[in-house]
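note to self: the first set is below, dont mix up w the second
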Amino acid sequence: MYHLEFEKPVVELESKVLELQNMEKGGGVNLSDEITRIQEKAERILVQTYSKLTADQKVQVARHPNRPHFVDYTRRLIQDFTPLAGDRLFGEDNALMGGLGRFRGQSCVVIGQEKGADTTTRVKHNFGMSRPEGYRKAQRLMELATQFSLPIVTLVDTAGAFPGIEAEERGQSEAIAKSIESCLRATVPIVSVIIGEGGSGGAIAIATADRVMMLEHSIYSVISPEGCASILWRSAEFAKDAARALKLTAQDLKQLGIIDTIIEEPMGGAHRDADRTMDVVGDYIENALGELSKMDGPTLKIRRRQKYLEMGHTL
């Protein structure tokens, strides 16, 4: 497993435990007391480390390559998931995936970004950065959900929309704006979870939801810390300062009223226990859909629009 720099003290202790366990098995000596002592120390350091993560460290955790991705969530939580491809205008976008499936017995539309798990899949999915056709596919799926009265679940994990020239030529900003509009026009429940990075318009294009939830160590921001630093300080070296100033952590955003719920992660982050993380996310989605299903379409639409109109409003 890939390890972050600030996790090294814990990783070293865990490696020592593994070494002692192998010695115990091979040499027939009893090292259980020493193993227990080191395990307790590792657990104590892990708790201390993750209880006081800085904004910059949370950025690193949110980007951890071993965090569960969109395909992992659909595999574990969505039965009979059937991907739907293409925007019916230009082509297919592999960064933004979506389709039909059953979430705990309830039919729904699922949409989200997929970053990829290795070099091959990361290139295939363009590192989770969607082009205009991806957002137009999302619009198509949202309209499909409304037509058949299916709730929408979105899983956000993107550094942002693809910034290439060809994306701009095909109307990237218009596609994102239309996707946001599609969220606001939908007359079915929309639940969104930020499972990793929530970057700029690329994220909000599918996260303009009735309920917006964030995993404890995920991030959600108008721009990446590196991008912000390069603009304000003319150097990406100030990314740590930018991360702190951007107020991009789940805790900051909950306090500001941008998101509704923080979903607690296993100690040490989602990458240490992916299955448990996905099951807990599933529980939160189920509860949110249960509450929203009690409202009719027009009420959902009005409440959703009002929710976003009120953001940033000051007296």
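second set (the one i keep forgetting abt)
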Amino acid sequence: MRKTPKNSNVAPISTSPVIGIRIPAWATFMREIFGGIVRYMRINRQSWQIRYMTETTNEIAPVKIDANWSGDGIIVFRPSEAEVTAWQKRGIPVINLSCESGGFGAPTVVPQDTAAGQIAARHLADLGLKHFAYWGDLSRKYSRERGAAFIAELKSRGYGCHEIGFETSKLPQHQKWVKVRDVMLAQLADLPKPIGIFARDDIAAATLSRACARLKLKIPDEVALLGFGNDLIICHTATPPLSSISYPGEKIGYTAASLLACMMSAEELTPMMTEIAPGPLVTRESTEILAFGDQLVADSVRIIRREASGHPLRVSELIARLPVSRASFQKRFRAELGRSAKDEITRVRLQRLCQLLDETDWAIKKIAFTMQFESSEELGRFIRKNLGASATEYRKRNRSQQ
């Protein structure tokens, strides 16, 4: 085990590896990542000594993690190339958590930004909207990738997309928010309405929300807003609360710790890029709109999305609750959504099923009971038909990619 230099700011010589973690205080996903690291340590009985940079009330000695830091391994968000080089020259394994530093030679673990863009496009398109925009920052790779995937998914559905935003990361810090707000006001005013906007992250979405308020644009009736990160404070202090795609922080932390352990033990080659699928999309009031021209279809879609995830809703049951004939309903529904009501019911149930398979270890019997399938066997057939695999195969395949 490496001995700690006398002039180091880490712990004295120990039999336990000393691991540095540097994630900036502004990164709202820090606690989730740290939770994943701790979970890895506990499951795998790793007795790591964690050193991290944190803001305190000066009751704890400060820890400085820079190019001169020494220890047995480091997990760091957005290091400089010089830092990575300095650590690697001293034989310190490094795991990077930012795609902006992905080309500096350290194994990198990040969210799958293309998947985030696709999820956002599907959600906003399924609201019945016809106009869309992406607020991004071309100076950031993650923003470019999310935007490109968002635009491509919309294009595959026959929609265009307005590209708005600018390089906010290059603005001086003094009153940066004023410039951002002024640009947002001008760009929002020129967009067609109603419109669905995907912002590169929750901070941008919250800022757009404030700009809409200044322009007296109603959310979600005129502007449906969606962010990325699912930061509870940011999302719930916006008015109305923001829908957002969850940052997979816990899985990123666990994966980063696992890769770091492999590097320190030299057990196997470490992949240079690992992308983690985003967490679930959490819907809140900012996208609670069904912008279909046909109000009857909007009402039927609202019923399906409210009830079908936990109940095997039948089309005949749905039509019985609406003042319309079956033939007319089927025609009008397909004209608005491009698919049948039965397809929409299946989509909603499949979405809920995948969520339960991905996020829980529930037995098939429990999932079948929760979603009101007649039996475990019926659910098994539904899974095989729609996912092309058994529940066990699906879970194994998806979790091996996370």
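remember for set 2: The two ends are 30 Å apart (CA to CA).
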